[in-house]
Amino acid sequence: MGVKVDAMTDTATAVFRINGTLQGPVVDILGQFLPELKALPREQAYDRTLDDLDLLSRCFQIFRKERPRFRYVLVDERRRPVSEDNVPLSCGRTLAEVIAMVVRTAAKRYFRRKLSPSAARAEAEAEAAAEEARAQAAARSPADELYDAIKAYLLHEWQVPLVPAYSEMDPALVRRVGAKLLDCREADTLARLIADPDAPVQTMTEGSPATTPSTFAAPFISPFAPAAKAPLTPVQPVVHPRTASLDDVLTPDMQRLRAEAFTETLLDPEVRAVLPNADQIVRIGDLLRGVGGQPATALVEGLGLRKDQLAVMLMVAQDCIGSTVFGRLFGPRADPELVTRIVERARLRGIGPTTEVIECAIFMRGVFARFGHRSRRD
């Protein structure tokens, strides 16, 4: 319980610090390049930007183009400059995580404006049928349903112009296409995916520049490398009644995951909704068999994971980084230090045995966000 409460406190503190920085110095710097932003009252500028997708997109463009001007904002806890998107900042979050937070907030606001009933209509319904209105208020709105389905895939600033197109999607369709959304960087590509969800996505035309890394060249550089010199603190096992049994999920020699232990888990609708390529049960089983006993044990004991959480986190990681790198990070010969750092970061985010599987998916996509997503045939 103490770990969970501490994590919740850390999360609230991080969000408070992030919002304060965005509303203050970040808005001030952006205002030097965007007169329409500078003209807004300072206390309203951040909120108004979140409600204006075009303005938000231009803010991101200015940030990338003029990043050196943000050098006093992009610092770690020791006030040292941070130049990588996946290195923790002084707030405890990485730049990639902050960007994802902003994109999700803007999308959620847009969905609610576009899909939720007007306040006037809600009041009329409340007067006509108070009981029915209360029941409707308690139910999830269409905007919330869509946001819950898509939030795990809202990670990058290039997705901001696509938010209106996302708002046209049915939550069931979002769950069906899953991580394919991250291959659709243009509106027409997304439109083709919506029209034919089962068709392969044509990602990037030959010769066009890549804006995010799409391949891993040897030697592999871990996303946790910048923190490699920091001493690791021993991770105390999390004990919870719902935690997966290692005797159940590992082979008798404890060297690998036992894929058969996840058969029922992979059929759970909640798991399938967030699992990449959920219909490819045989392939998922093969990938799980390739997971080493040591990294699996570190995740289960370090976070108290249930079987469904373990499967989702591993498969989302594989979807983000591909089978080759996945084998290096989570295979039988995985570097235990790297897995321990994932566990440490997950604990700070409040990941534990009571966490919803979609939150586990969001966390893992955030960990590997710097590598983007790509269609792989490995």
**Helix and strand string, N-terminal first?**
HHHHHHHHHHHHHHHHHH
Structural class: mainly alpha
Residue runs with pLDDT of under 50 for 5 or more positions: 1-5, 205-222, 225-232, 372-377
Quote the distance from N terminus to C terminus. Answer: 41 Å
Overall geometry comes to globular
Q: Oligomerization state of this entry?
A: single chain
**How many H/I helical runs?**
18
| Strand coverage percent | under 5%
Arithmetic mean pLDDT: 82
Quantity of strands, as a count: 0
Number of domains: 3
Radius of gyration: 22 Å
Residue share in helix: 40-55%
Biggest sheet overview: none
In short:
The chain contains 18 helices and no strands.
Give descriptors for this structure:
disordered C terminus, 0% strand
Task: Break the fold down into its secondary structure elements and pairings.
Layout: H1 2-31, H2 35-38, H3 42-50, H4 53-65, H5 95-115, H6 119-128, H7 130-138, H8 142-150, H9 163-166, H10 171-177, H11 187-195, H12 246-249, H13 269-274, H14 281-289, H15 293-303, H16 307-330, H17 336-348, H18 357-367
Helix pairs in contact: 1-3, 5-8, 6-7, 8-10, 15-17, 16-18
